[in-house]
Design brief:
25% helix, 5-stranded antiparallel beta sheet, Immunoglobulin-like, globular, 7-stranded mixed beta sheet, Lipoprotein, 575 residues, single chain, alpha+beta
Amino acid sequence: MPARLLLAGATVSLLACAHDDPRRFKLAAPVLRDQDLDFVSVPCRPDPSKKDPNRIACAPKDYESSFAWDGADNTIFRPVSKFFQVTPGGEAVNVNAFDEVPDSSWFENRIGARDIDPEEAARGYCPAGTELTDDPPDGSWYVDHGKDNGANPGFRVVVKGTKFMLKTDDIQVERATAATAIASRLYYAAGWWAPCDAVVYFKRTALKLAPGLTVKANVGPARPFDEEALTAVLARTGRRGELYRATASRWLPGRTLGPFTYAGVRDDDPSDVIPHEDRRDLRGARVIAAWLNHFDAREQNTMSTWMPENPDNPKSQGYVRHWYIDLGDCFGSEWDIDAFSRRLGHTFVLDFGHISEDFITLGAKKRPWETSQRTPGAEIFGYFNSYDFDPHAWKSEYPNPAFGRMTEHDAAWAARIIARFTPEHVAAAVRVGNFTNPAHTEWLTKVLIERQRLILRRYFSKLSPITDVSVEGKSICAVDLARRTGVLPADSFKYSGMVSRVGNAPSPIPVTPEANGRVCFPLPSMIPNEGPPDGGPERYVVVKIKNGTGSGALVLHLYDLGPTRGMRLAGIERE
């Protein structure tokens, strides 16, 4: 037989074997921790300051983000440039074998991975004793900096050597200060990094203003931040008698490097190797932003910090942590122009898609903002509500590169996390807002729960909401978050399962619903302890579970290691 025929025959045989191999996942534990948490070295460079002209920095360079350019780039220039490129879609890159996101410098699994009580959720990133106390002594808060950029005015104070950024309210008294504190708790409990923000009350006499301060707005030159400017900042914020209201944001740990971007990578961070727009934690952040109506989810409202291994050594190794900050736009922030305020969360400020639709239909298509109304008794929350909230149609102020690449799998991941917030968790977080009117606390809690349920109904209707899979003896158990949260009718759940083993036709298995959303099904070992190699295809088992509500199947990939060791879960997919 000619050598070419032998080679061809061998190639066909190898391809056939590869095709018949059922193993999509290796017998290995899932990745739970990203290597971007490892300490790395960054080349040192001159970093002179007024106090130390010989100072060096062994951290990535500071990044300044232009508000005007970021909006123009993501609204016009980036979409135009991408139009002429072949940019494939696809799923997020930083996802492990269990369809989850490992802990990283961007995200840490908290409420989605372990039980968190309402009190812990209400603490957020605020260890005991780290918040400012109300009504401090005269002159004890040293104002050393005005607040640059942002929608809400403020200034920085130094208290006993610790820095805090104080942000005040604008025309919607108490909303912005409460929103900053509440939203930071919800973001942090969900897993994203968010600062310690807390509502505080203080007398004007507690502030001691440093001379010669200036402040920069989003546009225009710097201007003085003096007694007159401080008076203007305090003029419109909330008060209780002679006490002024603000949110105190504890200064972030590490060295601040400026915002992170929602696209690309940071060239001077050796651990930043995944394009930001392809990170599930950034794509899926669109869902929590929609829940809270954090429409101002732009790069200027983020921060990166260099976390050194040894803070006392300027040449220390470290890593870059990524934060969400300035969440004061949540829960119905309004602009000076009412027509814009109505649209926030429904459309981009400059939305070419909606403009085209209006042109083609001559404006015949009705938009939700046309009929939106402020809620009587809750006017401070503007047009924030649940009755016209469409989770999948929600939009930020202008296009966000990561949000725009969110897939159904990214959204379902975020929804599974948001489902962990019980009404008690939400209520505890809202109480941190310290509203003067108890009715505002009650109303916001109710609307957030309603919006949460709309999110769960939307995303649990597509991909399986079954999670928390565990091997329990000769059974496999999991939790159906759709049934646990009650967002779908109880009579719609009709469970079914199919198991596939090598050399056997798929066969049905009984799936038993239990209390609190649990489901279990038997899966005894069928392979002897001694026999095929542990990771061999003969031991591979695939189980598909459906809950009967119309969502796709949960696909479990396991290895049958014999009666003694039982089943080992290797991978999870959602169809």
